[in-house]
Amino acid sequence: MKRVLLNAIFISVLILAACKKKQPPVNTEVPVNLFKVTAKHVLYYDQYPSTTAALSQVNLLPQVQGAVTGIYFIEGSHVKKGQKLYEIDKRIYQDAYDAAVANRKVTEGTLTQAQQDADRYEYLNKYNAVAKQLYDHAVITLENANSQVKSADQAVKTAKTNLEYAVIYAPFDGTIGFSQVKLGNVVTSGSTVLNTISTDDPMAVDFVINEKQLPRFELLQQGKHLTDSLFTILLSDNSIYPATGKIAVIDRAVNSQTGTITIRLAFPNPKGILRAGMSGVVRVHNQETEPQLVVPGKAVIEQMGEYFVYTAEDTLVNNPKAGADSVKNKIKKLIAVQKKVQVGQTIGANMIIKSGIESGEKLIVDGVQLLHDGSRVTTANKVGPSAGGKGGR
Hints:
This protein is α+β, with helices and mostly antiparallel strands. Helix content is 24%, strand content 35%. Among the domains are: 101 residues, conserved putative lor/sdh protein from methanococcus maripaludis s2 fold; 76 residues, Helix hairpin bin (Helix Hairpins, Orthogonal Bundle), CATH 1.10.287.470. The strands form 5 sheets. Strands 1, 3, 18, 19, 20, 21, 22 and 24 form an 8-stranded mixed beta sheet that branches. The chain has a 6-stranded antiparallel beta sheet with strand order 14-17-4-13-16-15, with helices on one face. A 4-stranded antiparallel beta sheet has the order 5-12-10-7, with no helix packed on it.
């Protein structure tokens, strides 16, 4: 029985030894793809969300009260300065004007009579042929008659103004909106909004910048910029507006809570493509005078607001196949080195690097998720993660 047990144990050991295979050595090198960093001249656009607005916009309010008797425009159309838009019932104001004119004629007649009496009494007074009191009364009556004429003139002007206010004209060229009143509606002076009219050529485009960028835009406003620095608009349908703009106004103050300031551009709008309230993207055409480092954006890693890249550097490491005393105990291997960089504008799938790396360095663009500072990397006929092809140096 003991012999059988020993044989069983021996056979089990042999089976276990036969099944145990030698595992291949773990490959600690991360397959990557590299990109050689080079400096080149680059054109790009700084982009800012924007909203179109009218350079001038007013609400039309009646200056007199009454019923609307006429509407003389097409809603949403372009109107000219001085064009007749609304008419309020003029009959009361016409009657008031006619009465004021008639009253002025009466006062003018009274003035003529008072002037004649004053002239007569002045002549008689020279020869002491009339009582002094009558002469004084005639002079006072003349002065009162003059004042009455002036008062009547003012009444005529007021009545004429009210009569003219019964017709509302366009204050400037622009686009008029939907009418807020209909024929027959009674409007109140100074409170009823009839309509809104806004300028449409040129149009304003407002956007917000960080206060740190303000000096640059002040130079642009003064015309101290490159000839190819200009403003364009990317419309909501991703088309480019066919005209360029210029700075019209820089707001008077920086918002103390956000550290931003509003810039207003002016764009010609002869075809009426732009309308107030449209959203878009302002593109500020920028050309750096010095070559820039442009790298694939996937090579840049963001960590808590800071940006890093990995470069591949040749480093001497121990050769595991050589003995400790061998002169060939050191071999070259690629090592990943993490570097903090300052990033600039994003251009499509690429990104400008302002500082942190230099031209000529080998940048790791695939497999960066598997790396840490000091990781061994390889490009030797291996497919890098997400590369879809062979790595290369």
